[in-house]
Structure formats: structure tokens, C-alpha cells
Amino acid sequence: MNPWSVALGVVLTGALSYYAVPLLVEYVDEQVRKQLGRDEKVGQRLVGGDFLGYLECALYFGALLWTTGGIALIAAWLVFKTAAKWKTMDSAKEHGVSMTEVQMRYRGFVIGTAANLVAALAGVAVAHLP
User: Fold this and answer.
1) Which of 22, 12, 2, 11 shows the shortest CA–CA distance to 108?
2) CA distance 102 to 32
3) More reliable by pLDDT, 14 or 89
4) C-alpha R_g of the chain
5) Distances from the Cα of 118 to the Cαs of 20, 86, 122, in angstroms?
6) What is the pTM of this model?
7) With helix as H, strand as E and coil as C, how does the chain read?
8) Do residues 76 and 84 lie in contact, with contact meaning Cβ atoms separated by under 8 Å?
């Protein structure tokens, strides 16, 4: 692999993760609120979520460059992340958070995860350029 292509892939992945992914998640949140007729935002996002998204995107990028074991690493991360979110959602329901809010948060979670994966795939595609 060309080191300049890899560097450009890293920059593209980072830029997409930092700028595009949060915009996409916010856009989806806004559209869901409109569809449900809710004016207020879903509860405030917790500190560290953005940073976790950046790390996740970097993990995907590195794993996809490491072709032999990368898919297994991504699969393990997604299993861990889903199990953790499942427990969080169950806990939220037990503490009186409405099902609508739980579903809205879950939608943002899934779309953010998918967007991070797409951002990493775009960076890896650039990294493989000659």
C-alpha cells in the first residue's frame, strides 16, 4: 500500500467521523422528532459519546486495513456494543424513560454505528489507491 494513500485514508476517515457522522445523527434525530410531533430534543447525550464514535471509526478503519482478522474484530466490537446498549435500554425502561425516547435513542445509536462503518470504508478505499 502507498503510505500517502493510507495517510489520505486516515484523514478522510477522521474528517467524516468528526463532521459528517454527527450531522447525520442529528438530522435523523430531528426527522424522527418531526415525524412523532415532538418539539423537544430527546434527553441530552452523555459526555464521551462523540469521542467513542471517533474511536469506533478508527477501530473500523484499522480493522478493515488488517484484512486477515479485521472482520472478526469488528464483529466482536459490534456484539459488545449491542449487548451494552441492550442493557442500557432495559435499564432506561425500568427507570420510566418512555418507549418512544428509547426507540429514538436506539435509532441514533444504529445510524451512528453504520455511519462510522461507512466512513471507515471510504477511508480504506482511499488507502488502497495506488
Assistant:
1) 22
2) 12
3) 14
4) 17
5) 11, 23, 6
6) 0.85
7) CCHHHHHHHHHHHHHHHHHHHHHHHHHHHHHHHHHHCCCCCCCCCCCCHHHHHHHHHHHHHHHHHCCCCHHHHHHHHHHHHHHHHHHHHHHHHHCCCCHHHHHHHHHHHHHHHHHHHHHHHHHHHHHCCC
8) no
Look-up of cell digits 441530552: 44
What is the total residue count of the chain? 130
Extract the C-alpha cell encoding 128: 488502497
For residue 96 the three cell numbers come to: 420510566
CB 116 within 8 A of CB 21: yes
- Grid coordinates of 103: 426507540
**Residue 45, pLDDT above cutoff 70:** no
The mean per-residue pLDDT over the stretch 117-126 comes to: 96
Cell numbers given for 28: 435523523
